[in-house]
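Narrative of activities, Objective 1.

The group set out to show that a structural description can be obtained from nothing but a protein's sequence at a throughput compatible with the screening campaign. Below is one input-output pair from the validation batch, recorded exactly as produced.
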Amino acid sequence: MRLSGAATHGSPRWFTIAAAAESLPFDDGAFDAVMATFTVHQWSDLGRGLSEMRRVSAGPVVILTFDGDALDRFWLADYIPELVAAERKRYPSIAQLAGALGEDSVVREVPVPIDCIDGFTEAYFARPERFLDDAVRQAQSAWAFVDPAVQARAVNHLADDLASGAWDARYGPWRAQQTFDGSLRLVVGPRRRPR
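Output recorded for this entry:
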């Protein structure tokens, strides 16, 4: 994990600190707020990492992640359900995250815009052809958890359906949909109560 920020006193200076989420090298309440983006599923000890986030934040703790229970909302699940199954195993439940951050935590669905420039799978909900590009799939960690033969089968099936028009016959309206309410979630833990 790399932490980056700007100094708050004097002229702005940017710095980076290499650290693990489970052992953050900062004092209690060192930050006004903290955020983890697309990372909690990679921590070796989720509970410890969340506890550390809560410890170093004087204010809210924010987590941007995916809801494993909503991954099959995306049409890609029809082509490669193995990818959804692999990802579902990796993501902590939203209830677990919210519970760890406090009883007043709020969970928000985050709509994915049609022109999203991030490379996660749902970013291409309206651009199915992108999944035919090896570089796009290689940039998405989910594909690494699926057997290469299964990947090839899914990509070939998608390519055939795009060429024949079968994909557009079934999912065509997705191309004009301005946002997609998929599995992207923002979990916001409340400000710490004074002791």
